[in-house]
Amino acid sequence: MAWTELELQAGLRAGPHRALLPLILQGLMLLTSPCLGGPPQPARTPLSPGQPFLVLWGIPNKACSGRPDPGAFGMEREGRVSMFYEDTLGKYPYYTNQDQPVNGGLPQHTRLDGHLQKTGEDLAAALPSIGYQGLGVLRWGQWSPQWGRNREKQGIYLEGSRALLRTFFPDWTTEEVEKWSQSILMETLWEVRRLRPKALWGVTPYPNCYNSGPAQSLSNYTGRCPAAEMALNDELLWLWKCCSALYPALTLEKLQGGTSGARLYTSNQIREALRVASLAGTAYDLPVFPLVRSVYTSTNTFLSEVDLVNTIGESAAMGAAGVILWEKDQGVLGLYAVNVTTAARLCGVSLCQGRGRCVRRKPESFAYLHLPPSNFAWKRDFQCQWYESLEGAAADEELPKDRGAKDTVVPVYKKCLWNRNS
């Protein structure tokens, strides 16, 4: 798809820093990228002890009746992943496919007190246990909190915002408009982390580096994330500080299937997510769990074995904490899942004494965590990303018990900066 910046109309001006920001940050990102060699930063301890890479089942069991138990194939059963959609948590504003507004349609129409009250009610119904220790995924992608990333069908949010601003705030900048969207995401993440502090919370499809532009054909496609998009991801630091995990989305078209372009696309998406995971200022990198769609987008047919390697295999080898499957299952997928999860566990024991996960020394290499095991190859091609100590991790996860009566006067942008290492 062609991603083009929508022009701003008179009366809504971009801040002066936007034009130069990608150029300024490009060099800084190259210097600070965790994928340029050297030992990686510490990782959060695994969700399941002793298992550095998980294949998580994000599909309701009732949708797969009659199929083998996912646990027999090294997949975590239903219940470890909780998905929340635009209509299942709070009063998230959005437009339907028929352009009908729901909850006001625009972020500017959202009453945060009502939204947060409904969020608490919905969360209590979906996850009654305060001690829930799974993944909490907000699948909220109807609009972007960044003005310039509301592209194509998301343009309805720009047009609606422009109409509203022409009437009430004609001199506002794009940055001032973005604060409305930011406050919804920040307040929601703050609330769910307060109510279910042991869960790992994040928003999908973030981060994304939009590296599938049509200007490159299959023959010259590099998969590299554009510097401007990486700079925009850096601007989302406020979001990464509110998350306790990252959930990028990996989807493939049949045309890409089995090609080197498919691997370049997924590898660079994962690489960017891992880079972003190191920015949040915690004592360890945020865990990354790509959402893998197990069928091709346009044909709804299962991914080939090659593309299972391009998605699940790449995620494991590059240092993701696991993947979430959000489509149907098939026999090959189950067999591959048990292969990768077992290899990741054995490598972690062999190279890291069970105190870390195996991560490629060179992110662009073709080294994978596959059976049968090869201690020599693993030692040559992989290094250890050590786990942060349980004591340090627990300290970093601690949240205030009660926001208190004076919480309403605390600037929203400060609420996710509570971490001691911010």
UniProtKB/TrEMBL annotation:
<dbReference type="GO" id="GO:0004415">
    <property type="term" value="F:hyalurononglucosaminidase activity"/>
</dbReference>
<dbReference type="GO" id="GO:0030214">
    <property type="term" value="P:hyaluronan catabolic process"/>
</dbReference>
<dbReference type="GO" id="GO:0005975">
    <property type="term" value="P:carbohydrate metabolic process"/>
</dbReference>
<dbReference type="Pfam" id="PF01630">
    <property type="entry name" value="Glyco_hydro_56"/>
</dbReference>
<keyword id="KW-0732">Signal</keyword>
<dbReference type="InterPro" id="IPR018155">
    <property type="entry name" value="Hyaluronidase"/>
</dbReference>
<keyword id="KW-1015">Disulfide bond</keyword>
<feature type="signal peptide">
    <location>
        <begin position="1"/>
        <end position="37"/>
    </location>
</feature>
<dbReference type="InterPro" id="IPR013785">
    <property type="entry name" value="Aldolase_TIM"/>
</dbReference>
<protein>
    <recommendedName>
        <fullName>Hyaluronidase</fullName>
        <ecNumber>3.2.1.35</ecNumber>
    </recommendedName>
</protein>
<keyword id="KW-0326">Glycosidase</keyword>
<dbReference type="GO" id="GO:0031410">
    <property type="term" value="C:cytoplasmic vesicle"/>
</dbReference>
<comment type="similarity">
    <text>Belongs to the glycosyl hydrolase 56 family.</text>
</comment>
<keyword id="KW-0378">Hydrolase</keyword>
<dbReference type="InterPro" id="IPR017853">
    <property type="entry name" value="GH"/>
</dbReference>
